[in-house]
Design a protein that fits this description.
- The chain has 542 residues and is mostly beta strands.
- The chain contains three helices and 39 strands.
- The radius of gyration is 25 Å and the shape is globular.
């Protein structure tokens, strides 16, 4: 999708403080998006019972729900996410520092990671323990149940949320690729086999077999949208169907939402993922925080995001001084979690498909046979549905407690690479409904061949490199083509590889390449005649 952004400097007055930010002009096509197209449409009114004006903060954030998230008059909080334990308690791992610190908010490099506990997902949370020094924490569970709390430049590990905590550092293997903008502000998603996919601040994708062993880089460029912006605050998660990624344009104060089948190849949906002004009370009152950063999600039993947490501040960071009226906290915003859907068509859907059948699964508190305004439904590619187009429902039938909706296939917009078509509509009682459907003919655990460590032996006229399968299913035998400055330099075959299987290839070269051509070395994989991967590598001279 083509992005036509222009930048200009604007002076905004927030809480009496003037601050320069970059205003991003939205693409004109976004004006035609319907309700539910944007990720931000999934944000629901905040929860909380204690509304107070007798608190710190600019007038724009008072009164506010002080029992939402975590706040403490003498502490500035930042970042953090939530884990739940079998006793139904919620555990927020958040960092913070004394509000009266000599540098105010800019004391953040010396922040401390806290363990806070709450009885409700939305809060309030109360600090019960100190874990150690660190900033921008993200907590996750390993396959064996141990808890990892990542912080910039390291992590803490314990057998339970109560510790004791041991500090350590990850090992990273760039695998002949340039590291994109350094390794900070990492975010993690657990894969089906217990391995972990990680996205770094620069937008590089990495994989670890167990979340602790070396993280190995798969990408040679950022996976973020190809738009202007200073990207930070990525958050990645995986549900029962696909990966999700939100990344924030720090200066533009606009975030983007992406989806992926494998965590490596991403599509970007139109519209904002979030922006200032999303913290809304049930009565429509808005807490107008100046910055929303470090988003983290809490997931349900099938991986759907049901709450998003933000670090928020009421003014520009360097205007938050010691012993003043400004500070920061963590807030909780519920999310519309979406429906559980599956396409029943066994054959690949194309523009010529006459009808499409979609199962809408019943869940506790949701009866699709009674709750849905069927006439409002649109189904197909997000490129169509997000603009009110797509397939229309023509009839329904019941199957147990589920509802099967038959759509006229015209206008579905689905391309050969479609992996999760989208449903948009309304409930009979009002309110937006949405969901992404699985396709029975799509492999959601694809093989992912990746090359590394090229070494050129000019005298032997050979190129050696390693090929590894980072996917969750066995790969098929594939053709390997190496290009140097656009010229085919070497060619060969790699046999089938199990997940994490590796093969060392020695390929005869077609010509003697000068060193300047080797600086642009690209490895391309072809499986069953179709390109399935492309890696740009840094060469090693032998």
């Amino acid at each position: 999708m083509k992005r036509l952004f222009s930048a200009l400097l604007a002076v905004l007055s927030v809480g009496g403080v003037c601050a320069q930010v970059t205003e991003r002009e939205r693409p004109s096509e976004w004006q035609n998006l319907v309700k539910g197209a944007r990720f931000v449409d999934r944000l629901l009114p905040m929860k909380g019972e204690v509304l107070s004006s007798d608190v710190w903060g600019a007038d724009s954030v008072r009164p506010r729900l002080v029992d939402n998230g975590i706040e403490l008059s003498g502490t500035s909080f930042w970042g953090g996410n939530i884990l739940q334990t079998p006793d139904s308690k919620y555990h927020l791992f958040v960092c913070g520092w004394p509000e009266d610190s000599p540098k105010g908010h800019m004391f953040w490099p010396k922040s401390t990671v806290f363990h806070a506990v709450g009885d409700k997902l939305e809060g309030p949370y109360t600090v019960c323990d100190t874990i150690g020094k660190g900033h921008n924490p993200e907590a996750f569970r390993l396959k064996d149940g141990r808890i990892i709390v990542y912080v910039i430049d390291g992590y803490y590990i314990a057998s339970s949320v109560d510790g004791p905590w041991r500090y350590a550092k990850f090992n990273f293997d760039a695998r002949s690729r340039r590291i994109i903008e350094g390794l900070s502000n990492l975010t993690f998603a657990r894969r089906d086999d217990g391995s972990f996919l990680m996205v770094c601040r620069g937008g590089g994708v990495w994989v670890s077999r167990d979340g602790l062993s070396p993280y190995e880089q798969l990408t040679d460029r950022r996976v973020y949208p190809p738009v202007e912006g200073r990207f930070e605050d990525p958050v990645v998660w995986r549900d029962h169907l696909q990966y999700h990624l939100i990344v924030n344009d720090w200066l533009g104060r606009i975030a983007y939402y992406q989806r992926s089948k494998d965590g490596l190849n991403w599509v970007t949906e139109q519209g904002e993922a979030y922006m200032p002004g999303v913290s809304v009370h049930p009565d429509g009152r808005v807490e107008h925080w100046f910055k929303y950063e470090r988003p983290k999600v809490f997931q349900d039993s099938v991986g759907r995001a049901v709450q998003i947490n933000f670090a928020v501040i009421d003014t520009i960071k360097w205007q938050d001084l010691p012993n003043d009226n400004h500070s920061s906290k963590n807030i909780s915003i519920p999310l519309n979690k979406g429906l559980l859907l599956e396409v029943l068509n066994r054959e690949t859907i194309t523009a010529d498909t006459k009808t499409i059948e979609v199962r809408i699964r019943a869940e506790q508190g949701f009866n699709p046979q009674k709750d849905i305004d069927v006439k409002s439904l649109r189904f197909g590619s997000y490129t169509e549905v997000n603009f009110g187009r797509g397939c229309k429902a023509v009839r329904t039938r019941k199957d147990g407690k589920d509802l099967i909706v038959e759509f006229d296939g015209a206008g579905n917009g689905m391309q050969p690479d479609e992996f999760a078509p989208k449903l948009l509509g309304r409930y009979k009682k009002g309110g937006m409904l949405y969901g992404y459907a699985s396709l029975p003919y799509v492999d959601y655990r694809p093989a992912m061949l990746s090359a590394a460590y090229p070494m050129y032996d000019k005298e032997a006229k050979t190129l050696t490199l390693e090929v590894k399968n980072y996917g969750l299913s066995a790969s098929r035998p594939s053709r390997v083509v190496v290009e140097a400055r656009g010229r085919q330099f070497a060619e060969g075959q790699v046999g089938a590889l199990d997940p994490y299987g590796m093969s060392a290839l020695t390929l005869p070269t077609l010509f003697a390449a000068p060193m300047e051509e080797l600086s642009d070395l690209t490895v391309v994989f072809y499986t069953d005649g179709k390109e399935t991967g492309r890696n740009k590598l840094i060469y090693y001279r032998k």
